[in-house]
Amino acid sequence: MRSSLSLTEGTITEKNEFLGSIGHELRNPLSNIIAQAETLMEDVYGPLESAQKSAVSAIQVSARQLLQLIADVVDLGRLEAGASPLAQSACLVSEPCAGGVAMVAGLAKSRSIQIVTEVQPPNLGVLADARRLQQIITELLSAAALSMHTGGQLRLCITHDEGCLQLQTLGGAGHPPAEPTQLLNQLGKVKPIGLALLQQLVQLHGGTFAVHKAVGQGAGMTIRLPLSRSSAPVSAQEPCLPESPVGNEAPLPASSRQPTILIADDQPSLVSVTRNYLESVGFQVITARDGNEAIQQACTLQPDLILMDVRMPVVDGLNAIRQIRASTDPKTRGIAIVSLSGHASASDKEKCLAAGATAYLNKPFGVRELDRIIADHIRPDRS
Predict the structure, then answer these.
(1) Distance (Å, rounded) from C-alpha 143 to C-alpha 145?
(2) In this predicted model, what pLDDT tens digit does every residue of 30-76 receive, in sequence order?
(3) What is the pTM of this model?
(4) 199 and 264 housed in the same domain
(5) Same domain assignment for residues 93 and 220
(6) What CATH number corresponds to the domain at position 266?
(7) DSSP string covering 167-224, please?
(8) Phi and psi of 16, rounded to 5°?
(9) Which of 210, 272, 343, 359 has the most CB atoms in a 10 Å sphere around its CB?
């Protein structure tokens, strides 16, 4: 029995690593597409005309949709392989609800759909895996929005009764009422991967998913998850890893001393666009093509910050971080290192931090996200 259990655990680990590698390889070229589009929108290469900005904006939207599709495929594979256990803790339902709405905001806007949410009571707390709960809400809203005619209102009502968290969607005015059978047919066509992921996540929680009919209002969807209520204080949840938001903050100002940033990555196109952006806002940039070069650059030039890709030739990013942290020079040991990874999993983040990374940045990332993490680790008065 023990050897059989060990074999199963080993197989799950192998599948998880395989899926993580697939996600990383798919996100690498996508990272370059998104980064190039964002630097164009930031006028790094000169101002764009209105029509050009519209075209680049369309590229950004499609790239984000592709990113979400990759995340769904990889996550679905992990769930089917049994490699995604739940990590439950006390959380406010309003937080993953807001995160889910933000994730489908672009889709709702493109279909002229207004999303209205209601959590009752507003301070409802449960013992749950907040990241997984946000994914369920995201996929539920996405499926509901895609099954609706354009226009109108999509309502999400979340309550707790009989020991279960209930999530219920219903389309409002603006489109003809749908019958349950019609909605099921529509759901089978609009986004099969997202719907499969939703069903797997509900199953992982031991919950139920059903299409229902409300008198005079057409059809909607109801999910019931056996989650216990919690009144314990909760801390803000971490955002879902596949998410890479771009805010409206101003670009990061460079200090008069021009801090130096080392980019260690074996993807020349991504290095080039990241370097161009960082230099455009006043940083000095040096590069390394593999982990060994990164170690040498860190020891000899001692940059203010290192952006270290995890998967690189010769010496990988994790071992490069470990060797930098083992340096006899305290200044080298103290360099802030941000791990860059396309694995998009909580376990990958934990591995990077355990190796000695100061922070973790998931690929692909936006320039505003890059700004924020640099601001956290480079101070103008640092010498």
Answers:
(1) 6
(2) 777 888 888 888 888 888 888 888 888 888 777 777 777 777 777 77
(3) 0.57
(4) no
(5) yes
(6) 3.40.50.2300
(7) EEEEE-TTSPPPPHHHHHHHHHHH-HHHHHHHHHHHHHTT-EEEEEEETTTEEEEEEE
(8) -65, -45
(9) 343
